[in-house]
Amino acid sequence: MPTDLHPRERPVAVFDSGVGGLTVLHELLVSLPNEDFLYLGDDARFPYGERTPAELERFCMEIAEELLVRRAKLLVVACNSATAAAMPALQRRMMETTLGVDVLGVVRPEAMQAVASTRNGRLGVLATRATVDSGAYERAIAELDPHVRVTSVACPDLAPIIQAGEAGGTSMSEEVVEIVRGYTLPLRETGVDTVILGCTHYPLVRPMLQRFLGRGVTIVTSGAALARQVERALATRDLTNPRTDEGTYSFLCTGDPEGFRALGTRFLQMPLTHVEHVTLRPTGVPA
After folding, report:
1. Longest CA–CA separation in the chain, Å
2. Is residue 76 within 8 Å of residue 104, measured between CB atoms?
3. 88: helix, strand or coil
4. Domain 8-105+224-277 adopts which CATH fold?
5. 8-105+224-277 and 108-221 share one CATH topology?
6. Among 27, 75, 152, 165, which residue has the least CB neighbours within 10 Å?
């Protein structure tokens, strides 16, 4: 990438543990068609949901360094586990740069949307174990409205099942259906009227989740709310790309590029262009 780009012409960088964050990138491409985007999937280390906070922070710092080298003007953490574990460290590192790169995560936009949506003050969260254990959603929701009750359910099998293509299609087994039904049971029992999908893989099984939760339950995903935050952040920093034609989007992955491209098409709902393999450099952050 050219090093002489004006800050407004630099790409918005998005990263995730794998292809799940492509559901967020989809919303960004729709909402900000004139921007260039660079997506990095750390699929070699997927899933993040069972990692320790120290591991996740180290992974995120390595990814951030790679995206800084590639001249990112804004960093979007499209991974709930990474957002929950590493946002303070990422924000400190990115603000040390010459440009002062903002970092946006998926937790707060979803929390804001959920608090605004609930009618009975009972919210549910479906997320990875790492995200649930972090308490990130509970803290974000309490800051917005301390009277809202939150029921969080860890779903350790769900993201791997979705990534493997075992959910959301005609080949879905009864075992998978029962696993997903079991995750929604505590939320039905506590009478939540709004549920946050706290992992970017989960929108791919939204119809099944809606069936089990009930049609009166509002499901909140991160994509649209986060896209609005990105748009505001770029405008506030005068970093909106001035181009009038369509922007570009490109991909990096730490695993197999062909496997990433084949699987990613289902998540992005658009054709994936060339996927470049990247080897992340250690940053020295202790694991």
Report:
1. 57
2. yes
3. helix
4. Rossmann fold (3.40.50)
5. yes
6. 165
CA distance 178 to 52: 28
pLDDT confidence of residue 175: 84
CATH number of 108-221: 3.40.50.1860
Q: Are 258 and 60 in contact, with CB atoms under 8 Å apart? A: no
User: Chain centroid to CA 45: how far?
Assistant: 16
Whether the model pTM is above 0.85 = yes
Q: Where are the domains of the chain?
A: 8-105+224-277, 108-221
- Under-70 pLDDT residues of the chain: 1-4, 98, 167-172, 284-287
Q: Is 244 exposed, middle or buried (0-12, 13-18, 19+ CB in 10 A)?
A: exposed
Active site residues: 79, 199
Rounded distance between C-alpha atoms, residue 272 and residue 261, angstroms: 6
C-alpha closest to that of 201 among 229, 217, 216, 180:
180
Strand residue runs (E) in 223-287: 249-253, 275-277
How far apart are the C-alpha atoms of 268 and 192, rounded to whole Å?
A: 29
Write out the E strands in 18-146.
Answer: 37-41, 74-77, 102-105, 122-127
